[in-house]
Each structure stands twice: as C-alpha cells, then as structure tokens.
Design brief:
single chain; about 475 residues; 15 strands; about 20% strand
Amino acid sequence: EIACRLGVDVKTVSRAVSSGEWSDDRRSPPRGRRLDAHREQILAWLRDDPRLSAKRIGRLLRPLVDKPLAARAVRAFVAALRVGAHPAEAFVHRTHSAGETTELDFGESWARIGGRVQKLKFLVAALPASNAYFAKAYPVERLECLFDGVVAAFAFFGGLTRRGVFDNTSLAVREVLAGPHRVENRLFHGFRGALPLKADFCAPRAGNEKGSVERGVEYVRRLFFQPMPVAESFEELNRHLEEALREDLAERHLRDGRSAAQALEAERAVLRPLPAHFPPTCRHVAVVADKYAHVQLDHGFYSVPSELARRPLLAKLFHDRVEIVAGDRVVARHERSFVRGSHTLDARHILRVLERKHRAVPESTAIQQWQLPEVFARLLVALEGRVRKPRQEWVRVLRLTESHALEDVAAATELALDQGTPLADSVRALLRVALEEPRAVTPVEGVRPDLGCLDVPPADLSGYDSLGEVA
C-alpha cells in the first residue's frame, strides 16, 4: 500500500523498512567489476609506461581472464585509473617581456587553391607579450618556407625580437642533445645568425613551453581556415589571411583592456629595428644538368639553357620559385612545383637544339607545355609545302622570342601571314619596323689609311634651291 501511494517500487519500500532509516538516495549499491581483480596489475603497467593504450592493456589481459572483455569497459576502466596513476600536472604562470620573444610553429589545414582542394601548411608566429599573431600558408613544410615565414613575420610585426622559440623540427635541428643543447641545421644556423636571432628549442613533447603559438595555431585555424577558404593562388590566399589577422588585432582584447593592436604598437617601440637587407630565404643545392639540360630538385625537373647540359650548377630553392645559377649568373628562373615527377620547362632553353633537330618538334615536352598564341599554329600550316623544312623555319620564328616579347613576335607573325610572307626573315623585318629598331650598320675599314687624313669640305646644296625657283 505504501508503494502504491508513493509511486515507488515495493523493493524500495521493503529496503527502507528493513533499514529503519529513510534516504533520498535511490541508487543501487555499487557492484563489483571483473577488472577490479586486475587493478594493481594495470596500475603497474601504467606507471611503467604512461603512454600504454587501453587497447594494448586489453590484449595484455587476455591470458589473465576466462571470458573476453568488452573494449568499451576496458577503455572506461583504464581512463579512471589514469587519473589516479598520474595526477594533473601543475604549470608555472609566466610574464613575457615586450620585445623579447617570438614563438613559431607550423599548423596544417585545407584550402581550395585554383579550383583544387589541397592540404597546406601554415606558419604561425606569436608575440606572447602583446598576444599578436602572424600566419602565412605554404604548399609544403620545408626549410625555405620557415625562412620566408620568419622574414614575413618580423616585417608584419615591424621589428625583431631577441630570441625565437621553436620546437625540435628536423628543419632546424639535426640532433637533440641533453638538456637545452641542440645540433642545429647548418643552413638554419647561418640564417638566424645573419639576423641575428637567438634560438631556444622546447623540450621534447613539451609544447607548453611555447603555449602562445600552440594556442595561436588553433586560433588561426578557426579564424581563417574554417570554413575552407577559396583562392586562385597562394599569393591571394596569404593576402586574405594577412587582412583577416590585421582586422582581428583591433577586435581582440587583452585582459588589461587593451586591444591586441594597441599592445603590438606599444611593443614595436622596444623591438629591434629591421635589417636593411634580410638574409636570402632560400636553400642552396648543388646539381648537375642531365643530357636534356634538366636539373632534378625535390623529385621534379626544371630546364636550363641547352648549352649547360651535363654542367655542374647551383640551384636556389625559394618557397615559390627556383633560380639556377651558373658561375655568377642566374640562367633560369621557374615557378616552384611540388608535384612528384613534374617537368617545369622553358621552351626557349631548347630552341637552339630544336632548330637542328626539328623533327622532334611535335613530341617536344617543352613545346607542348608552351601556351603559344593561335597564330603560330597557322604559321606552321602556312609553312607546310612552302619550304623544304617547315618545322625548322617555324622554330626560327620562335627564336625571335629570345630577344623580343612573345606578344610582339605574334603580332609580326600575324602581319607576315596577311602579306603572304610567313618566313623567319620576313617576320624579323616586320618586327624591326614595328618596334622602330634602327638597322645596325657596320663601318667599313678603308683599304688606304692615308685617305683618312684628307679634309673634304661639306657640299653646298644651295644651288638646288635656285634650280627650283627657275622651274
């Protein structure tokens, strides 16, 4: 009757009557778990190796139990034991001095670049004193990207700090020694020494030592890369990213009430001035051109002038371009490609060879890559049947682009086709006329040097005027 009146279970009433005391706690008494018998063993495993996963612990327990264990039960049991085995770590609050520290780290995200979704890396630099962030996106995470990001960050902040804090990335560190000591990458050491910038490296797996930039990576990801940004190129993407960060400086506030923009302006007063010339943000690689006058860099191929085939050269790898040097002269510049096995070729580098080996024109990779105006296709058709070697004559016209702009050569070719003279000499003459280039006249040396001593007075042409009057 009591159970009916109160709307509770009969067992609950019976338990209350038998105990003689009433309690609002209606929970069932705790029940034992099968894993309680192995508690000490699991704790010993966790103390020996805190990184041991619950899945691995479940496998270690299989020989010790008579029935299979549910994976979910093992995960919950191990998670509860971790709290007791490893108490929460306490940290030290730090106050950063203005102008002292820059923290740097790479993050990862996605963007649609040129209509294609691709994974990218973005370098984040943080000034902990003013809570200012800078970020720049790259297709890959390479040493030259780190160099470019450091230079761009200091230019954005308006000055240099005294030290930079990095993680133990292989881009900068060759070997981690005891304590804070590191064997730095030679190129990285030379780059930061040219600024100069003191480098401090975090302890392994201790990202809290650069907590400002760790938070900054996630902040930049949420600020700009969610939802996925869309841009035609990395230049456009980074331009929008910098604009977003500048707007955010004015909107984000520190605990003392100042905006991040005001804090950054105050910190700029104590930053070291920017150098007149930053060190080059490139990586140097010694290469040798192959028989095709191609050099291989990062699993891709780039062309050089054909006369440099099989020659040793020096390549400068920037984050966005490649420069190839022979002696003290830059002989080739290409946009950087990160596609494995790609060929980035300049057809002008092999025109001299194609003039002799003109039968290879249809299958030339460089010619196929060259986006020529449509007029050159009509030129090749016009040359068929008119000259004995039409492809050779066609290449001679293309060689005019070695000294003239492609647009000018195309216009002269169009005019030559209209006049019915689609030969290289005709295009060259029309090009000279269009650009008003004076014809070079080579002086002829006299066969009698004594004639140079004669003084010939200028001719008097006034008599022609009188002849005109008589007429």
